[in-house]
Amino acid sequence: MPWGDRVVGLLLLAGGRSERMGVDKAVLDGALSRLVREGRRAGLSPIAVLAGPAPRGEDLVHAGHVPDGVLIVDDPPGSTCLHDALVATLDGRWPAMLLCPCDAVVANAELFERVVRAGEGVPLDGNGRRQHLFAHVPSAWVAEADPRQRSTAVFTGLQDIEVGELAPLLASANTPEEHSNLSRSRKTYGS
Predict the structure, then answer these.
(1) Could you tell me which CATH number the domain at 8-189 has?
(2) What are residue 79's phi and psi, to 5 degrees?
(3) Edge-to-edge strands of the sheet including 136-137?
């Protein structure tokens, strides 16, 4: 494990409805399998998928979209948004975890390693914007609920972290056009 005696896991965010994309982003081009592979290359463990409401996680497993050894976490009953799922999931039971959305088309092991080495916090993209869905949260971290249910607010207390020339890898695809453009650039970044 490249992190010494520290345990750092990966939490893949795959519970969205993919309405703008028109297809399930978690399975498009083998997204979950690719991100699990990159997480393993980076030495991240455990790897878990925050899959959305049950039985979505089970369906992803049965359809072969989630590799063996990956934990499935269903959204809690009554969860209405990503904020609710994050607050329920990041409840102090996990080791340090790196988050990654399933639509992170160009994220790779090198990015994961850079974020972990930078320490706990929220990476900044090339425009200086906090990319909270790529946060690196500390061990036993408890996410605090935001009264307005904003997922960005869950990570307010974490410092900003720089990832340098890897900032473009923090991109995610929300439309078919974005996905196509990022997929073409994946070869540039070796993911």
Answers:
(1) 3.90.550.10
(2) -65, 130
(3) 71-74, 47-52, 8-13, 96-101, 136-137
Give the E-state strand segments of the chain in sequence order: 8-13, 47-52, 71-74, 96-101, 122-123, 136-137, 160-161
Distances from the Cα of 156 to the Cα of 19, 84, 129, 153, angstroms: 27, 16, 13, 5
**What's the pTM?**
0.90
Domain range list for the chain: 8-189
What's the CA gap between 83 and 87, in Å, rounded? 6
Check residue 190 and give its pLDDT.
58
Does the N-terminal peptide bond of residue 138 adopt cis geometry, omega within 30 degrees of 0? no
How many CA atoms within 13 Å lie on the side-chain side of 63?
14
* E strand residue ranges, 14-170: 47-52, 71-74, 96-101, 122-123, 136-137, 160-161
pLDDT tens for residues 52-86?
999 989 999 999 999 999 999 999 888 999 999 99
